[in-house]
Amino acid sequence: MTAEEWQFIRFTAGMAVLSTLLILPAGLAMAWLLARRRWRGKALVETFISLPLVLPPVVTGLALLQLFGRRGPFGHWLLNAFGVEVAFTWKAVVLALAVMSFPLLVRAARTAIEEVNPLFEQLARTLGAGEWRVFFTITLPLARRGVLAGTLLAFARALGEFGATVLVAGNIPGQTTTLSVSIYHQVQLGQDGRAWTLAGVSALLAFIAVGASELLLRRHQP
Amino acid sequence: MSTGLAAQFVKRFAGGPAIRVDNLNTASGAGITVLFGASGSGKTTILRCVAGLERPDEGRIYFGGQSWFDSQCRRCLSPQERHLGFVPQDYGLFPHLTVGLNIAYGLAKLAPGERRQRIGQMLEWLGLTGLENRLPRELSGGQQQRVALARAVACRPRLLLLDEPLSALDTPTRLRLRGELRGLLRQLDLPTLLVTHDRQEALALGDDLIVLHEGRIIQQGPAAEVFSRPSNLAAAGILAVETIQPGRLLQCVDGLATVAVHTAQLTALAQDLPAGTSDVFVCIRAEDVILALGKDDLSSPRNRLPGIVRRLDREGPLVRVSLDCGFPLLALLTKPACEELALREGTVVHALLKAPQIHLLPRASS
Predict the structure, then answer these.
(1) What is the distance in angstroms between the Cα of A115 and the nearest Cα belonging to chain B?
(2) Chain B residues with CB inside 8 Å of A126's CB?
(3) Residue after which a domain boundary falls, among B241, B269, B301
(4) Predicted-complex ipTM score
(5) Are B210 and B35 in contact (CB under 8 A)?
(6) What is the residue range of B351's domain?
(7) What is the pLDDT of residues B74-113, one digit of tens each?
């Protein structure tokens, strides 16, 4: 493999890890809000979060580009206030991966939290625990399998994301090119051999992620 | 104002009957108050409202003069602010935490040294030493119950709530642990509210009794009084034992107990009585009482009580005979049997009772 291919692999894995870490707190908070609280507009928020699952990824990418491009509302603001440019940088890659994998994490974590018997949480409250302590010592540990599975699913989704990434981050080798984008690019150039090498690497990464989740789950089996 | 629990509230359920607590009061200070009623009578809901896990629709709940819930001033203290111990029906031990960590859960505010010491005290007190690193699923039902009790009382709550503490156990274990639980609750010296649908459990564990029927309190008072004098038909139906009399244990030999009931003496089985019991309730069901006229015929029942027929009441094919044997005793006979004996008011008879049919329950000494 060439140095450039190695860079694609490291970059893609790094971006997937970063996006997964970024969505974890927000995803858990959202999953808890959906599973344990009643509030106005809940159905609307639920639908909105799940949109990237059902929309064509390029549409999500297009929307992100519109919002975070130089002239988009968020992009303009970020550029003026902080001098941060998002579109067509590695930040756009993280953004695209995060938005695309967020619904998977929220759905899995929400189901896992709903399956925790609320009696345990109530008992923890009678023992003097506040909501934070209840969440971190009771809810999360008891929902850990589902949360972990959702996290790994989100990570695997991020590893393979293509449509949204290519729209909002483009294909700038060394700066925004991910494995999937590179595979597409190689096929376009007629370099099928190189495309297959990268495809093999993708499969290996996915295999490692799933294998790791299996190992983790087995070790924590109650 | 009383310093115990004082509650008066309504809790409605969509499509179900409302729970209407008119005036629930417990004595100030330590003592076990039993909420007694059939399943579906609203016992658990009341307990959960007191714990702060459910919010009544209206009314108020006070404890020790402090307002826990008051719908008029929109006040509802969270469970963590009420400082109580709650033991649910299936114990609800945190499945991912060891025995030690379960007990430690309510001790977060203590210094580490003090916390360790308190856990040690709890383990020793409940005979759980050596089990602190086990997970709940590795424990027997009785051990789980004790861990749940330890967890609930480790932080020294102001009020202890127990929901059907024995119902998750199999029958032999339940009988064995009934006496044990009673002893433990006595030692705790805490105001305790206990829910049960089991009459014998209510008698064995309660100082005071609150009888529930279809979401309402139909009687409350000292356990002995409520059981011996049900205030209405519904309460009598729920309490369902014809003769319940306080007695005093005179001696216990070879598993047979001799009990003084007013002027009479009875022999009963001493099983299931915790060691050191002196005061008991003597429970006799009317259909177990056999009546005989002569006194010289040999028969196997251990108890032969001379008595006078005070009253005869027809109940379909049966006759309810009220006797005075030194204490009031009810017997249930068929009509032909009654005619054979030529029973009239004032007839002198002998009531025959087999020892196993006299049920002894430990009673709080007065």
Answers:
(1) 14
(2) 51-53, 79-80, 82, 84-86, 152
(3) B241
(4) 0.83
(5) yes
(6) 244-362
(7) 889 999 999 999 999 999 999 999 999 999 999 999 999 9
